[in-house]
Design a protein that fits this description.
Blueprint lengths: L2 H9 L7 E2 L4 E2 L4 H5 L24 H7 L1 H24 L17 H37 L5 H30 L3 H28 L1 H8 L3
Antiparallel strand pairs: 1-2
Helix pairs in contact: 3-8, 4-5, 4-7, 5-6, 5-7, 5-8, 6-7
The structure holds fe (ii) ion (2 copies).
One fe (ii) ion binds next to helix 5, helix 6 and helix 7.
């Protein structure tokens, strides 16, 4: 394994280092169940999502402040959209669609595969950072400030984070493999994992930013 690969593996390892900053205790994780599931089976179970309790005291100003999270999410989704566009360009190399013909890829496909792998690896780190802050700081603060009323939704959001984290681990590994052996097979593996992660993250972001909008604005103010 390359030095960069070893460093990435260390950065995207299991979440034993994640600490609940309010209670100063490690956040327990149950990644083992998820690690055995097929990619297609991994799901955030949208049907089981509870609604957040209303915050009657919240004003429009609070809701506007709460939309900071949606703005942060949009930024991540834009970055993932750009990676997805690169993935589509590489996949379309045999017969590029009209609108993609002007976009030039390297003549060496291995270079293109490596570029995709490197962007995926970077995105994994950024997403992990975002979710670690939420799990370790934002969620506990909302739970405490809401006097337990947000316990159910926070538990659901944390459960969704475990699914996202499992996908981050898989994509990080796939990206590392692709960097070391930029073959068609490894490219397909990384591409499929990226698409699954994007689908799950998009769904999770939408739920989280909608349900926590009032609570973030009213209880936390700036995040
Ligand atoms: Fe989240
Ligand atoms: Fe988030």
């Amino acid at each position: 394994m390359s030095a960069a690969g070893a460093k990435r593996k260390e950065a995207i390892g299991p979440r034993a280092d994640v600490v609940d900053l309010v209670h100063n205790t490690p956040i327990s994780c149950s990644m083992s169940d998820l690690s055995t599931q097929l990619l297609d089976e991994l799901s955030v179970d949208e049907a089981a999502r509870p609604k957040a309790p209303p915050v009657p005291e919240a004003t429009d100003m609070h809701r506007q402040q709460g939309r900071q999270l949606a703005a942060i999410h949009s930024h991540h989704l834009r970055e993932m959209g750009q990676i997805g566009a690169l993935l589509a360009r590489i996949e379309a190399r045999e017969a590029p669609p009209e609108q993609l013909k002007q976009l030039v890829l390297s003549l060496d496909m291995a270079d293109n595969f490596r570029a995709f792998g490197s962007l995926c690896g970077r995105e994994c780190q950024v997403l992990k950072f975002h979710h670690d802050i939420e799990s370790a700081d934002m969620f506990p603060r909302i739970e405490v400030a809401g006097g337990g009323r947000f316990r159910e939704i926070v538990a659901k959001l944390k459960a969704e984070h475990e699914v996202v984290h499992e996908l981050i681990i898989r994509l990080s590994r796939a990206a590392e493999t692709l960097a070391e052996a930029p073959s068609e097979k490894n490219f397909i593996q990384a591409g499929n994992t990226f698409r699954k992660l994007e689908e799950v993250v998009r769904s999770h972001f939408g739920y989280e930013e909608t349900e926590l909008e009032e609570a973030i604005g009213y209880y936390l103010g700036l995040i």
